[in-house]
Specification:
By secondary structure, this protein is an all-alpha fold. It has a single domain (3-124), classed as Nucleotidyltransferases  domain 2 (Four Helix Bundle (Hemerythrin (Met), subunit A)). 74% of the residues lie in helices and 0% in strands. The protein has 5 helices and no strands. It has helices at 3-28, 32-54, 65-75, 80-95, 104-124. The longest helix has 26 residues, at 3-28. It is globular and about 40 Å long. The two termini are 18 Å apart.
Length: 131
């Protein structure tokens, strides 16, 4: 298996694991600030799996958030806004004590209106959370 295929598979597995953690946090309706963060990292790993597998060379693989943001803007413009919102909200949860803690309703909105767009776009490219 080529390295990029293996790396893409590892990102996909990480996305699946993160989504299971997200669902557990959401079901408990506790630690919703961390649920937002885990939901974002689910999206990040789904997107990274696609970007890794579609890279022409190792130089095309994003290695940090700014590189990944640029890659999403260029290669997946239809989900860029949906990708950026959970990213921002996870930063709020982790770093900004003055920002509101997500409510179950807000969390559901982030999932329904942003994460699902990302998931759908990745499903269309054969990167799915279902094993």
């Amino acid at each position: 298996m080529p390295v990029t295929k293996r790396e893409a598979g590892l990102h996909l597995e990480k996305a699946r694991l993160n989504f299971a953690h997200y669902e557990a946090l959401k079901a408990e309706s506790r630690y919703l600030d961390w649920a937002v963060t885990v939901l974002f990292y689910t999206a990040l790993h789904l997107v990274q799996a696609y970007l890794v597998e579609s890279a022409n060379t190792g130089f095309d693989i994003p290695r940090d958030h700014p590189e990944r943001d640029n890659a999403v803007a260029r290669l997946l413009p239809e989900i860029y806004t949906s990708y950026r919102l959970p990213s921002t909200r996870s930063q709020w949860a982790r770093y900004h004590v003055d920002k509101p803690t997500p409510t179950p309703e807000l969390l559901q909105q982030y999932e329904d209106h942003h994460f699902r767009r990302i998931e759908t776009a990745m499903n269309e490219r054969d990167f799915t959370l279902k094993p």
